[in-house]
Amino acid sequence: MKRWIGWAVAALVVLVLVAAIGRALTARRAEQVSAAAPKAAAVLELGQADIVTASRVPLARVIEVSGSVRAVNSAFVKARVAAEIRSIAVREGDAVKAGQALVQQDTTEYELRMRQAEQQAQAARAQLEIAQRALANNRALVSQGFISPTALDTAVNTEAGAQATLQAALTAVELAKKSRADATLVAPIGGLIAQRLAQPGERVPVDARILEIVDLSRLELETSLAPDDVAALRVGSGARLTVEGLTGEIGAKVARISPSAQAGSRSVPVYLAIEPNAALRQGLFARGRIEVDQQRVLALPVSAVRTDRAQPYVLALEGDRVAARPVALGRRGEAGGVEQVEITQGASDGMRVLAGTAGQVGEGMAWRMAATPVPMPKTATQASSASAAR
């Protein structure tokens, strides 16, 4: 009896272990099936906005430019005489007109020099009068035979020397007057005061910079381009610029192309005339694009080209799968209000690819178009409410 009970207990234990192992295996198999099921069933649903098509569009070659905005007309007001500055009538930001008096230097020294020159001229005039009277007397004496012709020649030479001395003295007077007038500095052009480089009370040398004037009515962008870009550029080519601190774009045109390349960099200076804008200031940094040589090429939106690999590629929709296809890129430009890039290799006309808005998608992933929701018919209550609202 006891042996039978022992065998029964052992059998019961074995049955319990077998049941526990079976349940564990069943649970594990169910987990594996549930983990594999989503992977097998994962399908990328796309909307119309997630797909773009390679097509031929008119695209212009774009040359990127950047540089500083500067005034076409600007000038420095420089000291023309060495003297102390008595007064400066303007400060930064003040508007001035051409010919307006801006700076007054001390004229004491030049007034004294002018007075000295005038006195020397008076003395020279007196000497000339004496020489002229002596010459007239000698001519009378020669005609009467009282003096020799040699004495008359001496009187003629003396009168000529006195005449030259007077002319030199008169020239010195004019120079002294000019120096006194040069102590008053006027605006060479109209515009705005950009810098005030000296202050009243300072003694400045000749050619010292005192004020800078800029004329903001005509502004340009100065940039440097590579020789191969300049070869495709023409005077009058249009450009769009973005200036720091300003919203939106500003139009510009190529105004001048330098005939010489810069030493060292071999780049060529190019100047773009900027359309008038009241918010522009000299010295602002600007960047933009010049459009040249428009052609019809196979292109895709720039956002559809992916660059997270060594070579640019696109995610093409081939059948019901997504495939990565490497592409070669060409010119960039704008078409239809979208920035486009030329595809020179790796794509064909009509090829459908994922747009950049689709995000990162694994290669080989299945895809399908998202179902368009069908509008539900209105109930009688909704229809009556809509009629009442109308």
Describe the overall structure.
The protein has helices spanning 2-41, 108-144, 149-182, 227-231, 380-389, and strands at residues 44-46, 51-53, 55-78, 83-88, 95-96, 101-105, 184-186, 191-196, 203-204, 209-225, 238-243, 250-257, 268-274, 285-301, 313-318, 321-326, 328-335, 338-345, 352-354, 367-369. The strands form five sheets. A six-stranded antiparallel β-barrel has the order 3-10-13-12-11-14. Strands 7-6-4-9 form a four-stranded antiparallel beta sheet. Among the domains are: 46-60 and 295-369, conserved putative lor/sdh protein from methanococcus maripaludis s2 fold (Beta Barrel), CATH 2.40.420; 65-70 and 216-294, Elongation Factor Tu (Ef-tu), domain 3; 107-182, Orthogonal Bundle (Helix Hairpins), CATH 1.10.287. It has 390 residues and is of the alpha+beta class. A hairpin with a 6-residue loop joins β11 and β12. α2 (108-144) packs antiparallel against α3.
Radius of gyration: 47 Å
> CATH topology of the domain at 46-60 and 295-369, what is it called?
conserved putative lor/sdh protein from methanococcus maripaludis s2 fold
* Biggest sheet architecture: 6 strands, antiparallel, barrel
Q: Please give the CATH class of the domain at 46-60 and 295-369.
A: Mainly Beta
Fraction of residues in β-strands: 35-45%
The string of secondary-structure elements, in order, is HEEEEEEHHEEEEHEEEEEEEEEEH
Order of strands across the main sheet: 3-10-13-12-11-14
Structural class: alpha+beta
Give the % helix.
Answer: 25-40%
Mean pLDDT: 84
- According to DSSP, the number of beta strands is 20
Q: Please tell me what the overall shape is.
A: elongated
Q: What is the terminal-to-terminal distance?
A: 94 Å
Low-confidence parts: 37-41, 376-390
Question: DSSP helix count?
Answer: 5
What would CATH call the architecture of the domain at 46-60 and 295-369? Beta Barrel
